[in-house]
What does this fold into?
Amino acid sequence: MGIDIDGKTRLLGLMGDPVEHTLSPVIHNTLSEILGLNNVYVPFHVKKEGLAKAVEGAFQLNILGLNVTVPHKNDVIASLCSVSDEGLAIGAVNTLVRTENGYRGYNTDMLGLTREIKSYGIELVGRKVIILGAGGAAKAVAYMCMAEKASDIYILNRTLEKATEIAEHMNSFFGRQTIRAMKLSDWRELVKNRSDRDKSSENKAGGNKAGGNGTDEIVFSEKYIAIQSTSIGLKPDNDRAVIEDEDFYRMIDTGVDLIYSPFETKFMKLCRRNGAKAYNGLKMLLYQGIIAYELWNDISVSEEVADRVYEVLEKNARNNTVLTGFMGCGKSTVGKRLAKATGRDFLDVDKYIVDKAGCSISRIFAEHGEEYFRALETEALNEIYNTVTGTVISTGGGLPMRKVNRDILNRLGEVVYLDVSPDCVYERLKGDTTRPLLQSENPMERIEELLGFRRPVYLDGADRTVNVSYRTVEDIIKDIID
Ligand code: NAP
It folds into this structure.
């Protein structure tokens, strides 16, 4: 991305501690690029003791707007000239908008989540909602559920006092007793907590029990929406959900997890396995940023632009590098070393398929043919797409030939094509009998023919191309990282 800075460039930024891993610059600088606005967004590492001075300094430096993240979202309020209603009610702000007298604070986390759930067609009005967790994010979730007029809201937390505090505060702020605090471990009480509407429709349907397999299943006429707001399940804690019991997931029809790394959390998997729709929190992140950007620049960002920013954000959030290229270009060797050098995991799609199928690729080709294998590749990619983040992914040589696969790769991460010449492939693979596609009388001719056909497709599907012919692995990795 090229940023032109001149005398009229306006500065935007983020204050937090730490800030190194933030994705906010991706959102805001992409917006400025697409919309052609002369803004630059940078992160500022601000310590607790320097917060008030940093806000004052930002104002004197004519900084147009700021985001604020952990741990300053509450403390920064003391340095502002005014705070929006939702910021006051939640007791936290994440966006500072410049005014004549100082900065005004807003909570666009709440507004972003509202826009995310609306973008998925989820309506809260008149619905029963379960909020899991009572930390900083849950306050914004509770406010949203109240503002959107959910009929019954249950806030469940390991530490009951924190849930009670949010419930009492929000009930009093909105002047109605809609939120009830509960201990996380008491969630089974919600199974009993069916409304008269549920019961009457169950009676009409001839009772509320189904089953016969030993576990009676409650049939709900109106299920809950569950919003997962704890930190359980966040990478690398991928295999945990704050509630693991499947009975919980049978009570809900829609699950929203605020976490977006991994892309499909255990909570989401459990929702889907029990028939509920499930969404992660990346669009919340996107929209909180877009709403802040709209406030700073006094503009409205279209959904078409939001979609374009989301594509860039998704790639960055996933933090995957996808290596494509012809057989013998070194995808596995380079991939493993690149993963190590960048502190990420390594995944070989061919190995993923072999492990799942329980037999070698040559055998799959021999017994079922190429088309069958290509279908397995697409299936594997879809699974990887749902779960894999922070990984270097090596792909089979023919995988990008299918358009559907190229589309998935493009969203999965940055696609780097390892460009190798036919003679270099021949040198590396001569004598290798495990490659089904090279079992011909004249392998060199076959390589030239196949590569001649595939190379334009690889180039078309790649974000970057790195020449790998007759080069050392170190050299290639340096090129990729640079
Ligand atoms: P927080 O203030 O630290 O709150 C953490 C919550 O998780 C608390 O309710 C805590 O319960 C609960 N928790 C932690 N460990 C637990 C355990 N072992 N068992 C049961 N509950 C446990 O964090 P936060 O700022 O609210 O953030 C929560 C999550 O939302 C994070 O994963 C964050 O990444 C995500 N988030 C996403 C976005 C987005 O834009 N998508 C925005 C904000 C936050 P106790 O109160 O009992 O400790």
In short: The CA atoms of residues 365 and 372 lie 8 Å apart. The chain has 20 helices and 19 strands.
